[in-house]
Design a protein that fits this description.
Blueprint: H1 3-26, H2 38-63, H3 78-95, H4 97-112, H5 117-138
Length: about 150
Amino acid sequence: MRKYDLYCALTLLLVSMFVSAMSFKFGLGSLRTPGPGFFPFLIGLLLGCISLVMIVIPYEGSLKGRIPNERPSFGRNVLPTLIILFAYAFAMERLGYIISTSFLLLYLFKVTGSRRWFTSILMTLIVVSLTFLFFNLLLNAPLPKGIFR
């Protein structure tokens, strides 16, 4: 395991512990009636599990005499992806959920995911449609309408 992978995993573990601890201040509620801190707590737990996996798996392989496979470098996509995510957050109100999320997912699938155009467009349409139906119709959550007002 590279040194910076370990630092990243430990940082994620600290962030997950912080998020989980702070979610108690909002109140967890119960499974039937979740409080405002319930989902942040679950996200903190999930992030903690992922960070523990990042720490344990490479060491497990090296302890057995195997050298773990090197992961591909995704460094060239980090800065453009961060810029796109910030643009997404600011464009959501103006363009609306459907258009801004479609552009974001199309970028993520095509550029960072290296998918073909047909696959990227199909996956974008499926994800945007399902999430819109889930949040807007089933949960009755107001999503930004943007230009579709």
